[in-house]
Design a protein that fits this description.
The protein is 57% helix and 7% strand. The chain starts with 8 loop residues before the first helix and ends with a strand.
């Protein structure tokens, strides 16, 4: 074909050699580019595989660390550090977890959980993981709800504030104040409770001979403290520390009325036996006494 185009025979071979070299160089370059791409693809695949392996290793490590954290959280007593100190001489006051949780939430908590009686019960029973288990319980409003077993145990032995003795109230209020401070209650709210209990303990009725006056003070502080928690955030909220003499007198009168009503109801339960249920049986008299005593039988 080259000869047909008028190319001299002397130039045909060199021309073919040039064409071959050009084609070969082009193919060689294309082949080298292909090899470079394949090598790059292999390196990229190896890099991605190594990166994926590192990520998998990190995921496994994170899962193990998370599992350890969950275990430390679940069994925190097992991992808490122990200070290198001797056992203290003074009595250690440790309120129940149920009471401290309520104070942490800023909720109403009964004084009973800070009395010697409840603290002794808590001291005799060690906390268990089962205390965090949920149990189905019927609430005061009639609905059912799941609550922790520790809450159920705490409520089982609960004594209302108004039913505590003066000694127990004195034991509990100081400890509750300390617990409020530990739970970071606002200073104003803590001071309200301090002023309330000071007003109750220094009231003239504390030294009165009438048991109703003393009981009225305990009932008053129990009721107003519950009401104070219920009205927080409402227009009906009030200063807990301001004593209301009228309400205190009303509380005393209510206790007197309830006691009188209970006494009347008790007296009404005592009734004479009807005569129709009494039978007389003459007993043979003894020869010595010559009398005819009788024995009464009740039907």
């Amino acid at each position: 074909q080259l000869a047909d185009r008028g190319i001299d025979q002397l130039f045909i071979v060199p021309t073919l050699e040039d064409v071959w070299r050009d084609n070969n160089a082009e193919q060689q370059e294309s082949w080298d580019e292909r090899l470079r791409q394949e090598a790059h693809a292999i390196l990229e695949a190896e890099r991605l595989a190594a990166k994926e392996a590192v990520l998998r290793h990190q995921v496994v490590a994170d899962e193990l660390e998370l599992a350890k954290q969950e275990e430390r959280k679940k069994y925190k007593n097992k991992y808490l550090p122990i200070p290198n100190t001797a056992v203290p001489t003074e009595t250690i006051i440790i309120p129940s977890a149920y009471a401290m949780n309520k104070l942490h939430k800023g909720e109403y908590c009964e004084l009973y959980y800070f009395t010697n009686r409840d603290l002794a019960e808590d001291e005799s029973s060690l906390p268990s993981l089962d205390d965090d288990a949920l149990t189905l319980t019927k609430l005061e409003n009639g609905t059912h709800s799941f609550i922790t077993l520790s809450s159920t145990k705490a409520k089982a032995s609960l004594i209302k504030d108004e039913d505590l003795s003066w000694e127990e109230v004195g034991q509990a209020n100081f400890r509750m104040i300390n617990a409020m401070c530990q739970c970071e209650w606002a200073d104003a709210r803590v001071q309200m409770h301090i002023d309330l209990w000071l007003a109750i303990e220094t009231h003239e009725w504390c030294h009165d001979t009438s048991p109703f006056n003393k009981a009225a003070l305990l009932t008053y502080q129990a009721r107003v403290r519950r009401l104070w928690h219920r009205t927080i955030g409402l227009l009906a909220s009030f200063n807990l520390a301001i004593l209301n003499p009228s309400l205190l007198t009303k509380t005393r009168d209510e206790l007197v009325h309830n006691a009188s009503t209970a006494q009347i109801a008790l007296m009404q339960q005592v009734r004479p036996l009807p005569f129709s249920n009494i039978y007389f049986h003459l007993q043979s008299c003894s020869p010595q006494k010559k009398k005819f005593p009788f024995v009464v039988y009740l039907a």
